[in-house]
Amino acid sequence: GFCLRRFGVRGDAGNDIKYALDVTVTSDGHVVVTDGGDCSVKAFDFEGRGVLAVREGFCLPWGLDATPKSEVILTDSEAGALYLLTADFQRGELKKCQMIRSRLVSPRAVAVCQTSGAVVVIEHLKARGPSKDSTRLKIFSAEMDLIGQMDSFGLNLVFPCRIYATAVAFDKEGRVVVTDVCSQAVICLGKPEEFPIFNPLISHGLSYPVGLTYMANDSLVVLDSGDHSIKVYSS
């Protein structure tokens, strides 16, 4: 792929990016980034001009995804919370930053279903004793009611391999899709009401998949940090 535009520099100015952790694009064309370096959420227009920086007492803002209404759902990994951020990005005005879920365990990646409004979050659980760390997926309805959850141990009881999820997305049919670094694969876990099923979508050619998103044409883009590449797969 060719780089079409580049913006953002490392520095201390208000719109500089110190340590980017996640990125999303709103339906009105703004790029929103979580910056772990100064614990903020920053929005840019598509020309790269900073339009808004939000520092609402975040401890460590991490993952984020945009809703169809151009609102932003984001996780605070250190605070164990999920926030809803509403803003007029055109005017650079923050309207509301509301905690919508608390008592989560190191939540990081998050995805919003563009049809149902359901939200899925990946929690990172610390191991007790000699066992390895694990992850847990929690699925919430649009009203933020918990409708499903499963951790690595539980998934291992159902599926033939241990799953350590690093990234999550919804496909256009509303199915939950995760990257798994243990099996070096991308796996579909089904819709919230049938969660979990086990359907490997990509099982070869990945080294250490850590990010994924769907494009408008339903192609799947996977960020592979194992060989420092971006891989695009047809639907």
Give a structural overview:
This protein is an all-beta fold. It has 2 domains: 1-99, Thrombin, subunit H (Beta Barrel), CATH 2.40.10; 105-204, Beta Barrel (Thrombin, subunit H), CATH 2.40.10. Helices cover 3% and strands 48% of the residues. It has one helix spanning 152-158, and strands at 20-25, 31-35, 40-44, 50-54, 61-66, 72-76, 81-88, 93-101, 107-112, 119-125, 134-140, 146-151, 165-170, 176-180, 185-190, 199-202, 209-214, 220-224, 229-233. The longest helix is centred in the middle third of the chain and has 7 residues, at 152-158. It is globular, with a radius of gyration of 17 Å. The two termini are 19 Å apart.
Largest sheet: 4 strands, antiparallel
Mean pLDDT: 90
Overall structural domain count: 2
**What's the tally of helices?**
1
Going across the major beta sheet, what is the strand order?
1-2-3-4
Secondary structure: helix percent: under 10%
CATH class of the largest domain: Mainly Beta
C-alpha geometry: globular
**How far from one another are the termini?**
19 Å
Secondary structural class: mainly beta
Total strands: the figure is 19
- Poorly predicted regions are none
CATH topology of the largest domain: Thrombin, subunit H
Can you name the CATH architecture of the largest domain?
Answer: Beta Barrel
Rg, alpha carbons:
17 Å
- Listing every helix as H and every strand as E from the N terminus to the C terminus, the arrangement reads EEEEEEEEEEEEHEEEEEEE
Strand content: over 45%
Organism: Cnemophilus loriae
GO molecular function: ligase activity; ubiquitin protein ligase activity
NHL repeats: 4-47
Pfam family, one: NHL
